[in-house]
What does this fold into?
Amino acid sequence: MIAVIGAGPAGLMAAEVLARAGGTVTVFDQMPSAGRKLLMAGRGGLNLTHSEPLPRFLSRYGAHQDWIAPVVSAFPPDAAVAWCNGLGQPTFAGSSGRVFPRVMKASPLLRAWLRRLEEFVVGLRMRHRWTGWDASGVLCFATPDGTERIAPDATILALGGASWPRLGSNAAWTAYLPGLVTPFQPANCGFAADWSAHLRDRFAGQPLKRVVLRFGADQVAGEAMITANGLEGSAIYSLSARLREAIQSQGSATIQIDLRPDIAPEVLAKRLSEPRRGQSLSNVLRKSAGLSLPAVGLVQEALHSGADAANLTALVKSLPVRLVASAPIARAISSAGGLRLDAVDRRLMIRDRPGVFAAGEMLDWEAPTGGYLLQACLATGVAAARGALDWLEGAQG
Ligand SMILES: Cc1cc2nc3c(=O)[nH]c(=O)nc-3n(C[C@H](O)[C@H](O)[C@H](O)COP(=O)(O)OP(=O)(O)OC[C@H]3O[C@@H](n4cnc5c(N)ncnc54)[C@H](O)[C@@H]3O)c2cc1C
It folds into this structure.
């Protein structure tokens, strides 16, 4: 029997590959039902993967690109799309190239997937919390009825990262792999800013649409949301790895927001220099610069903090916002850190744990949103399963 621990996308994909190859597979999970984080991802439409060319796709994994390239190339975005279609969930690519199931949610996909696994006679044992190995290397589980010990032929760990712990991936597993784990940190997360009470009360929960965020040499077009504590949303998530590092090393990170990227500075300057005819600054910013109310709020916040009112154009085109902390990991979309990549071999087998493989977000890679997270979870699930099959064949041969 092969044990897969963790019924998220990585573990379920590993189980599918193992079962298709004729393996006897049991999936264990500590939660009462499978795929809770996948269902949560479905609330945002379930961005499964991305349709850009593979080299560009792989570049999104940044420093981990070389490590992940062979894994994702062996189960690339096209394969993820075909797999999703095969479960009766047709996909589409949005204008940004992001790929979603047409129904824009995860529940029908997960239901079909679990049905498929049932047809392959994959066992699903929920409310089984893995608590490490005993002295003889047997897997130990805490269950509602007490404890259980299992000695499988091979094990795949797919225990997830550390974000949204209430959905199951609480990173408690790190205690069972001492010395092999890089501490978890929030990724694809919001950031705290020192908002005034006025900005917070008036604009928390309101979006900044079609803006461009700049940080150093990086720039991202998209949407950001003003929150009670700072900013979140897809554009800010894309910069989150570098913002997190800058805050860690320098205590804060200042981004520039172009609130009207579609208007050239000269055009904007001309509009803003026209006589105001008694209009308030807020009205001028709304009517002449075409800013939304939350964007006006941000400009006024900058003016109250001492920004130069004589150069409104610069403020609209390059509004500085100082970010002082990452949002808590419990609210991050994903996490950075996890089982070190040098702790596993090319088959994703943990070097000092023969027959134990790892997959998914528990491994120490990081990627922005855009479908790169699920794609890597599915691909590492495939790789770990193929690695386990290969290892079992070698062990038997
Ligand atoms: C709000 C939100 C939106 C997201 N949207 C997207 C998106 O649109 N596109 C995208 O690509 N990604 C998205 N993600 C990220 C994506 O959902 C995760 O990267 C992915 O679910 C990770 O898969 P995984 O299988 O590695 O781990 P998980 O899905 O976290 O599954 C790990 C499983 O292991 C179980 N487990 C943990 N410890 C134990 C233990 N000791 N014993 C037994 N079981 C255990 C957990 O209960 C859990 O079921 C989103 C995440 C969030 C939070």
Observations:
- The chain has a mean pLDDT of 96.
